[in-house]
Write a structure and sequence with these properties.
The protein has seven helices and twelve strands. With 212 residues, it is α/β, with parallel strands linked by helices.
Length: 212
């Protein structure tokens, strides 16, 4: 198994620049697995966050890959900076928690109509899911009610693709003791429970979407 980080541009939150990353997992049995697809959505959202976008096709090309090579997409959650380039993968299953899809429809945030209009067809899963002996999805609610993370077992040990369960290593290590950035935890108690559960996995490597 090989892991490649994708540079998908950056955005701004309160004038602070945040990188946007996705990840490719090159799996012996599953093929090319993509965790999160980067920014996309309504123009007003992209303007508000001052998104400087990079296409997922260009990011994949850095590793001699193209969108058509991707066999499976895992969206950690349905925010614009994690599922925004899903339309590039209409040939591949888009895996998301059923609770996250229901949240998106229930809350009807600024991205909901854009997702519906795009015609995205999701593969809805219920709870933690084993994709292979060495690759699984685990629920990690708190940032959103249906957030999920990805756990890989490699020669290094456990590697955790944390999505927005923690924006940065500092937040992960502090367990949210102190001021949190806007949007980090929609449900603070669930979010802190998630960090406890993820740390119990004793990951040897953490892969963040908004940290350098």
């Amino acid at each position: 198994m090989e892991i490649k980080r994708l540079d998908l541009g950056h955005l701004f939150i309160r004038k602070e620049q945040w990188p946007v990353h996705g990840y490719v997992i090159l799996h012996d049995r599953l093929g090319v697995v993509l965790v999160d697809t980067g920014c996309g959505g309504p123009d007003e959202v992209l303007r508000y966050f001052e998104v400087v976008n990079r296409t997922v096709a260009d990011a994949l090309a850095d590793h001699d890959l193209a969108p058509i090579d991707v066999n499976l997409v895992i969206n950690t959650h349905l925010h614009f900076d994690h599922c925004g380039q899903n339309p590039a993968f209409e040939h591949a299953p888009l895996m998301v928690q059923r609770t996250e899809h229901e949240r998106m429809l229930r809350e009807r945030d600024e991205v909901t109509e854009w997702i519906e209009a795009s015609g995205m067809q999701f593969e809805l899963i219920d709870g933690s899911t084993e994709l292979a002996d060495d690759l699984r999805i685990v629920t990690s609610p708190g940032h959103t009610s249906g957030h999920q993370s990805v756990v890989a077992t490699t020669e290094l040990g456990i590697e955790l693709f944390i999505g927005d369960a923690a924006y940065t290593r500092r937040i992960y290590e502090s367990s949210g003791m102190g001021n949190l950035p806007d949007g980090q935890a929609a449900d603070l108690d669930a979010w802190r429970g998630t960090l406890t559960d993820l740390k119990a996995l004793e990951p040897q490597r953490l892969h963040f979407c908004h940290d350098g």
